[in-house]
From TrEMBL:
Subcellular location: Cytoplasm
GO-annotated cellular components: cytoplasm
Reported function: Adapter protein required for efficient degradation of Spx by ClpXP under non-stress conditions. Interaction with Spx stabilizes Spx and exposes the C-terminus of Spx for recognition and proteolysis by ClpXP.
Keyword Cytoplasm: yes
The entry's keywords: Cytoplasm
Family: Belongs to the SpxH family.
SUPFAM superfamilies: Thioredoxin-like
Record's subunit section: Interacts with Spx.
Listed name of the protein: ClpXP adapter protein SpxH
UniProt main location, coarse: cytoplasm
Amino acid sequence: MNNVQLLSKPVAPSSITKPIELYIFIDPLCKKALKMQTMLRKLQLQYDHYFTWRYVLSTKLVSLNGLRRTKGCLTGAELDITHPALPSIAIKAAELQGKRAASRYLLKLQEHSLLNTKDVTSYSVLIDIARETNLDIDEFINDFGSKEAARAFQCDLHITREMEVDEIPSIVFFNECIEDEGLKVSGMYAYDVYVHILQEMLDDTLTCQNLPSIEELFNRFHSLTTADVAEIYSITEQEAERELKKRMLQQKLDRLTNEDITLWRKK
């Protein structure tokens, strides 16, 4: 791998109880981010007893420059605007209600983006998504236009610059020793590469957890593409689709599709 660098740990790292911490740099609506999330899900299923993780939202700065001219509209719910940076700010607003709330929100936002069912760069649509994911809507609206959400997003951008992450997606691996350098892996690689990095950083043989059943998988992640399921179980997309269709006929899953993608969602 050519895109690997050693980095110093952030000045104020989050407290962790597992030996490895992953900083995952994504643009939430980028197709590569979706592939990264598929890999991360499989890594969680098999090895999450070794690591914690956090997303660092890295929307392009060129997008943010335009936002400065329109940000006054953010607190006016009656005035709708669209902007590529708004989804990232909305995710940070959801995060103020907890990590699980933010994960639900991100998943639903990406679902609409994949299926092209809503314009997820629209302020009013992002409010609607908060309702769909059962967030406290008044709190979300207040947070969406707040300094706290803006600062949280600015913090992510600062971390991106500080670690000199110039390719999205990327992952930086840190171990529990603050004096040790982290390992930055720029771009996307095969799943086995990330497993190998975990093993090298732990300097020990990894214990792999068994993958769950498809039903258990959807209990955890709720909606997945055919490609997600194929990647997680290391099977072909044709084999994954056959298994998913069986669950659809059993009334366990809904199938959502457009000309580009098929998404399966737990009923």
